[in-house]
């Protein structure tokens, strides 16, 4: 992961598929995936992680960082699908358990999360779910709703102003949240 050239892969960086990588700053890279680990790397070339957060099961690009806050959107869980961690201490600050959208249907699996570039807002998407969460003061508060009528959302991106978020999903659907 941290070497240039044709031998760029770090053997055994994770024990399963890596689904998401993101930079926290110029020297800090985070990676996560199916092995329920988020590894923190020194991007200047250290061959082993400098820190690890156990727990998040990432089945998409569900890892995002803003300042010292890490958001993880996990899949295949019945609780704590969205987790906020502190990058300095690698400890969980808080979490959100998403309810089932209807009786007998599993709570949504999440596949993507993206911090707004300008505000304390996180865009989150997954199976029958897309939402914006306020991350103020170490809490996560949902500002939009989920439902069975929504497509599965696999990706999200903010416009540079941070005022609009675009969600992409199954069936070629693109949705916009302001």
Describe what you observe in this structure.
This protein has strands at residues 18-25, 28-33, 37-42, 51-54, 63-66, 69-73, 82-86, 91-96, 110-115, 121-126, 129-134, 141-142, 153-158, 165-169, 174-177. It is an all-beta fold. The strands form 4 sheets. Strands 1-2-3-4 form a 4-stranded antiparallel sheet, with no helix packed on it. A hairpin with a 6-residue loop joins strand 11 and strand 12 (141-142). The termini are far apart. Residues 5-9 have low confidence and may be disordered.
Major sheet: order of its strands? 1-2-3-4
Write down the oligomeric state: single chain
Note the beta-strand portion.
35-45%
- What summary fits the major beta sheet? 4 strands, antiparallel
The H/E string reads EEEEEEEEEEEEEEE
Number of DSSP E strands: 15
Task: Please mark out the parts with pLDDT under 50 across 5 or more consecutive residues, or reply none.
Answer: 5-9
How many separate helices? 0
- Structural class, by secondary structure, is mainly beta
From the spread of the alpha carbons, the general shape counts as: globular
Please state the CA-atom Rg, rounded to the nearest Å: 16 Å
Q: What is the percent of helical residues?
A: under 10%
The first-to-last residue Cα distance is 36 Å
Q: What average pLDDT do the residues reach?
A: 84
């Amino acid at each position: 992961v941290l070497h240039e050239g044709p031998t760029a892969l770090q053997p055994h960086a994770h024990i399963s598929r890596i689904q998401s990588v993101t930079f926290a700053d110029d020297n800090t890279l985070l990676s996560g995936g199916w092995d329920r680990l988020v590894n923190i790397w020194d991007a200047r070339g250290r061959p082993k992680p400098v820190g690890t957060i156990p727990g998040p099961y990432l089945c998409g690009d569900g890892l995002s960082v803003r300042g010292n806050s890490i958001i993880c959107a996990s899949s295949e869980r019945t609780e704590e699908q969205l987790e906020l961690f502190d990058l300095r201490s690698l400890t969980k600050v808080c979490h959100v358990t998403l309810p089932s959208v209807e009786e007998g249907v599993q709570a949504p699996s999440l596949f993507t999360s993206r911090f707004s570039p300008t505000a304390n807002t996180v865009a989150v998407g997954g199976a029958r779910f897309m939402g914006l969460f306020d991350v103020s003061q170490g809490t996560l508060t949902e500002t939009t709703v989920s439902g069975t009528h929504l497509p599965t959302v696999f990706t999200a991106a903010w416009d540079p102003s941070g005022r609009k978020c675009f969600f992409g999903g199954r069936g070629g659907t693109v949705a916009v949240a302001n």
